[in-house]
Amino acid sequence: MIVIVIIFFFYNFKISVPYAALCKTFENIENTTKRIKIQDYLTKLLVAIIKLSPDNLLETIYLCLNRICPEYEGLELGIGETILIKAIGEATGRSAKSIKIDIEKQGDLGNVAQTSKSNQKTLFKPKPLTVPAVFKGLKEIAMFTGNQSQTRKINKIKGLLIACNGNEPKYLIRSLEGKLRIGLAEQTVLMSIGQAIIAKSDVTSFVLDCEAVAWDKENNCILPFQVLSTRKRKNVETGDIAVQVCVFAFDCLYLNGKSLIKKTFKERREALHNNFVPIEGEFTFAKNINASNIEEIQSFLEQSVNDSCEGLMIKTLEVDSSYEPSKRSRNWLKVKKDYISGGIGDSLDLVVIGAYTGRGKRTGSYGGYLLACYDNENEEYQSICKIGTGFSDEQLEKHTEFFKQHIINKPKPYYRVGDAKPDIWFDAVQVWEVKCADLSISPVHQAAVGLVDPVKGISLRFPRFLRIRDDKTPEMATTSEQVADMYNQQVVISKNNAANQNGGVDDDFEY
């Protein structure tokens, strides 16, 4: 009961974290070389701070990293040994000469400071140091400039040393030197923070199946795929992140040391929902329904399209519903938005102008093709997509034999293909009917360039071969103006018209 009362008092009145608690953690870390133990020591401290004094978390982390501000502010400590020796001498009554002799013996100014302080007798016990007080003091010391800066630094350090107890002088001096030397790496600090903020302490390890999507925080909705593809992945400051991401979890494969892949999907989904807590706009569960008829699935598919999703993943719930890694299964069916009749699912008639050499099971035939629309005004073929799905093995073989008779050495002057580089070029002799999930702005392809975006074209996402259009000549193919109209009429694009879409990356496929 006493412990509970103390904790309640500590929390309610927001007593600052004692500097002694941080120094004790530093000492434990310094006395071991095992990374797991180091992480455990720091995690326990951070958990206590998050629960009892969360306002002190940032200062604690900075002190663990031996910093006093973000790197971009350019403020550092690195106080010289001469100043530190003088401050230790004034705080403990020792001469600089005797301190230097101890440094030669011990090789660590922090240890010398601790020994010097422990031998000092005081009439009155000073008020214990706190993490915020030390952090504030260190920052003030680093900011002192001008004629009297050295004297001001010495006086401030002396004041902190006088208030130190136990092993506090050792780590205070090391912090001032800019070299903590306890074997605490930045990566370990980051991992400890992650462990400390776990919402459910009984979850010790897990593997989730998730997808990251671009997220509109103002409207709480998913943004189109092409917005996510513009997000920078490396060397980005937090404040410069333009595209926010939300993680959608839909399966739990491993939990607390146990594999769940042989469990039913129903059991895995329950494990997911029972052990993880959604955070709005950052982490949530994929929307799902339990359905047993086509009408329910059709309605949910239409809802997914209106919510800017690609479509549905239909899974068996209990019978034969184990998770099979890296293996296609008839118990999982992907239903894309292009299966909806009309609207987004309108087909296009496109001209074949190139091909890509087949790999894997498609070795010996063309694995994929470069397609183009026709621009009436400029009388040119403009690349719109690569296509590699919708073919049977027999169709692939027939296409290969047909187009081998129409190979040309280089693209025609009236082929506008941008950065698209197929392995083989063809004469424009055949038109294919193609369906797709939707259309997106493309930095690669040239279809309708200048009609929607001044420098980028339009491409098809998830193109799928339907049939050969023998009734159409290449000049009768879908035009660039029609492609632009289809793009502008999309439900997803019109719904997210306010979003700034700066181009995307075209979907690849298995040749």
CATH topology of the largest domain: DNA ligase i, domain 1
Q: What is the architecture of the largest domain at the second tier of CATH?
A: Orthogonal Bundle
Helix content: 25-40%
The tally of structural domains comes to: 3
Structural class: alpha+beta
**Mean pLDDT score, rounded?**
86
The shape, in one word, is: elongated
Number of strand segments: 17
pLDDT under 50 segments (min length 5)? 1-13, 497-511
Largest sheet: 8 strands, mixed
Task: State the CATH class of the largest domain.
Answer: Mainly Alpha
Number of helices: 17
Brief synopsis:
This protein is an alpha+beta fold and 511 residues long. The chain has helices at residues 2-12, 19-30, 35-52, 57-64, 81-92, 96-106, 109-118, 131-143, 149-163, 168-177, 186-196, 225-228, 265-275, 294-306, 393-403, 480-489, 491-495, and strands spanning 206-216, 221-222, 245-255, 258-259, 283-285, 311-315, 332-336, 348-357, 366-375, 380-387, 407-408, 415-416, 424-426, 431-435, 438-442, 457-461, 464-468. The chain folds into three domains: 1-197, DNA ligase, ATP-dependent, N-terminal domain (DNA ligase i, domain 1, Orthogonal Bundle), CATH 1.10.3260.10; 206-339, 2-Layer Sandwich (D-amino Acid Aminotransferase, Chain A, domain 1), CATH 3.30.470; 343-495, OB fold (Dihydrolipoamide Acetyltransferase, E2P) (Beta Barrel), CATH 2.40.50.
